[in-house]
Design brief:
The chain is of the alpha+beta class. The chain is built from 3 helices and 7 strands, in the order H-E-E-E-E-H-E-E-E-H. The longest helix has 16 residues. Keywords: Signal.
């Protein structure tokens, strides 16, 4: 009897499976986060392309300085996409202010951009902060 219970337990445990990994980011994935404006008109941001290359920048126009800071792996790109996809593409906000935050993203054939004054749209502020935290946790953005 004990042998039957043991075999049944092993069979059930073997069928349980493992948790599925998050789906990969689409091959056309790109993300750009930036903030700036105000009296000085300074801007800074971070861009991530489909290969995982992370580029930070500051300045505008000819004075824009860029630095490639990191390369994300497939799991890190997937985490960014998973955080972005359920919220961002359905959020239509074009309300820049004296200080402005911008997010632009593409993926799965979709391209979308938003602009808002920080503090004016809680959902976008939260998404922006969450994406920045994900990038910071990978040491891509300092």
């Amino acid at each position: 009897m004990a042998r039957l219970v043991l075999l049944t337990s092993l069979l059930v445990a073997g069928c349980a499976g493992t948790p599925e990994a998050a789906p990969p980011a689409p091959p056309d994935f790109a993300l750009a986060l930036s903030q700036g404006g105000g009296f000085a008109g300074r801007w800074s941001g971070v861009e991530v392309d489909a290969r995982g290359t992370v580029t930070t920048w500051e300045g505008t126009g000819a004075d824009r300085r860029t630095t490639t800071t990191d390369t994300l792996d497939a799991a890190e790109l997937s985490a960014l996409w998973d955080r972005l996809d359920p919220v961002f593409f359905d959020t239509d906000v074009d309300a820049p202010g004296n200080l402005t935050a911008r997010m632009e993203a593409s993926g799965d054939g979709r391209v979308h951009a938003t602009a808002w004054e920080p503090g004016a749209h809680a959902a976008l502020d939260s998404l922006y902060a969450g994406l920045t935290r994900l990038l910071s946790s990978n040491a891509a953005v300092q």
